[in-house]
């Protein structure tokens, strides 16, 4: 499964990068395949391990912010592994064929 999620602290002002970094640190320390961009962090693994990491990432932000917003999108395909890479490679392959 791949989960793309965004954790946003609320009530801490406009500069939230330090809080978001706390969440991303949890993801990176998990050892699961992951990727962070300007809007979301994606993580790949089985249901229990991915959801545990999301929960801990939210808790890391929650520890310092009075309120937290979580946006989560999941792709549940148990037969797919390395989806973070293979999905992008498929799109790139089609783009390079043009």
Note the topology.
Elements: E1 2-10, H1 17-29, E2 34-36, E3 41-44, H2 47-62, E4 67-75, H3 83-96
Antiparallel strand pairs: 1-3, 1-4, 2-3
Helix pairs in contact: 1-2
Pfam family, one: Thiamine_BP
Protein name: MTH1187 family thiamine-binding protein
Family: Belongs to the UPF0045 family.
Question: Could you give a short description of this structure?
Answer:
InterPro entries: MTH1187/YkoF-like (IPR029756), Thiamine_BP (IPR002767), UPF0045_domain (IPR051614). The chain has 98 residues and is of the alpha+beta class.
Index terms:
98 residues; alpha+beta; four-stranded antiparallel beta sheet; 3 helices; MTH1187/YkoF-like; UPF0045_domain; Thiamine_BP; MTH1187 family thiamine-binding protein
Rg over CA atoms: 15 Å
Question: Biggest sheet: strands side by side, in what order?
Answer: 2-3-1-4
Low confidence ranges: none
Give the number of DSSP strands: 4
Estimate the mean pLDDT confidence: 94
Please, what is the oligomeric state?
single chain
What structural class do you assign from the helix and strand content?
alpha+beta
Instruction: Provide the β-strand percentage band.
Output: 25-35%
The termini sit apart by 30 Å
The helix tally amounts to 3
Give me the strand/helix succession: EHEEHEH
């Amino acid at each position: 499964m791949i989960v793309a999620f965004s954790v946003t602290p609320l009530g801490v002002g406009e500069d939230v990068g330090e809080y978001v970094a706390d969440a991303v640190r949890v993801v990176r320390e998990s050892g699961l395949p992951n990727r962070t961009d300007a809007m979301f962090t994606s993580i790949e693994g089985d249901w229990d391990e991915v959801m545990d990491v999301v929960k801990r990432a939210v808790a890391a932000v929650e520890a310092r912010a009075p309120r937290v917003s979580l946006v989560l999108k999941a792709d549940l395909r148990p037969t797919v592994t390395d989806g973070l890479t293979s999905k992008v490679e498929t799109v790139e392959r089609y783009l390079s064929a043009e």
